[in-house]
Structures are given as structure tokens and as C-alpha cells.
Amino acid sequence: MNAPAQSRLIEDHPWLAFDLGAPMQVLSWAINAPGFVTARHILWREVRNADLTLDMDVHPWLERQLRARGAADAVCFLTSRDVRHVHQHRARVEGAEAHSVATVGLGNAERVGTRRDKATTDWGTINIAVAVQTGLTQAAMIEAMSIAAQARTAAIIELGVALPTGIATGTGTDCIAIAAPHGAGAYTGLHTALGEAIGAAVYHATKVGGARWIQDTQTKGRPSP
After folding, report:
1. What SS3 state is found at 49?
2. In terms of DSSP bridges, do strands 109-110 and 170-171 run parallel, antiparallel, or are they unpaired?
3. CB neighbours of residue 36 within 10 Å
4. What whole-number distance in Å separates Cα of residue 215 and Cα of residue 211?
5. Measured by CB atoms within 10 angstroms of the end CB, which terminus of the chain is less buried, N or C?
6. Which of 45, 30, 76, 16 is nearest to 175 (CA)?
7. How far is CA 110 from CA 92, 105, 125, 196, in A?
């Protein structure tokens, strides 16, 4: 039996590519490929205000960018965070492994259940991709997404970013993508080895990335993207 393909990260500024090693089912709400799709790559595209004007339709722009890269079938995040400030973590529990990659910017941090006026503030986002080698059902993929979201939120809360509405739990533009082979694995909850691995991988990548953003912000004396 062939060994499962291994995921790896490829940096190519302003792009960042998470090569899953083989085509997999991917679940996300990425603007170019939301829901369940099949893809080998999850991409980040770093953008600035000059790239995306207020009156611009981002969908055809991103499609052109992806076609030019030969990556029309990829799942793609957009981020204002410098993609060279990427953090990844692999977690292995009882033979179950998860590989998480995250870029973290908190310029438009929010606390869940509240909403601030963002008209005159900086933007930022948290983009997280997680790859597992265990074959999963779609129901298990949805459960894995909930674990990744919990881990993201736990990491951000522990960073203690204070807002007028309370401690931040994320940003207004977060996106998460979960990738796994098709298979019979039906559960990825907190009581499972795979759920633990997913949670640990996402938590550590997000926590380190968020801490780096805070450090950059304090060093520069102004909000960082």
C-alpha cells in the first residue's frame, strides 16, 4: 500500500500555497470555491488597498489571478497580512495527524455576538487551513470545521485583545478550510484522537501567529495588517 501523500507549504510572495500532496475534499467558505470541492492546493493571495478598490468586483479579479497562476481549481484565501508571516503546526495523536497553516491579522478584530463600526479602521483577517490524512465523511468534515473554529477562538481569547465590546474572539473576515481524503471516518469530535490533533494544530498555529501580529503592532506603534 502506498504511503499517504504529505502536505507541505510553498512560499511565493504575494502567494502562499499549501500543497495537500494529492487532490482531496476541501470544505470552506472561501469566496472562490465555497462548500465542498475537490482541490490539491489551498492558496493565500496577499492584497493591498491598491489591489482591491471599493468599487471593484473581487470575484472576476481573483479568477483572473488564479488562471494566470494555473490554479483555477484551488481554494483561495485573500489576506492583507504579509503571507511571509505564516505559521504552521503539525500535531499527532495516537496515529492521527493534522497539519495546520495560519496567517493571523487582528486589525478588524471582533467579539462574537457584537459588531463594531469598521468604516475608519484597519483591516486584517485570520485564514486557517487544516489537512488530515484520515479519510472522512462529509459529516465528519463539518465536525472537524467546528473543532478548528473552537481552537481558533480559544487561541484568540487567550491573546487578550481588548475591544470596547469585550475580548476579541476572531475577526470579521476569518476563513477556515478543512482538507481530507474521502473515507469512512465518521467522527472528529473532542473525544477523538483526530479531533484532538486538529484542535492542537489549529490552536498552536493561531496562537503563535496572533502573538506575532501583536508584537509587530507594538514594535511599529500602529496597527499592523
Report:
1. coil
2. antiparallel
3. 13
4. 6
5. N
6. 30
7. 31, 12, 11, 26
What is the DSSP code string of 106-167?
A: -TTEE-TT-----TTS----EEEEEEE-S-B-HHHHHHHHHHHHHHHHHHHHHHT-EETTEE
Fill in the amino acid letter for 96.
A
Q: Report d(CA 194, CA 184) in Å as an integer.
A: 14
pTM for this entry? 0.92
Q: How big is the chain, counted in residues? A: 225
Residue listed under C-alpha cell 496597527: 223
Assign 3-state DSSP to the chain and report helix, strand, coil percentages, each to 5: 25, 35, 40
pLDDT in tens, 18-35: 999 999 999 999 999 999
Residue 178 in grid coordinates? 478543512
Cα–Cα distance, 21 to 18 (Å, whole number): 9
| Block residue for cell numbers 481569547 | 157
Q: Which helix (H) or strand (E) holds 204?
A: helix 193-220
- Which residue in 121, 123, 128 sits closest to 104, CA to CA? 128
Query: What is the tens place of the pLDDT at every residue in 148-195?
Result: 999 999 999 999 999 999 999 999 999 999 999 999 999 999 999 999
Which residue matches cell numbers 490554479?
Answer: 71
**If we measure between CA atoms, which residue out of 3, 5, 2, 32 comes closest to residue 177?**
32
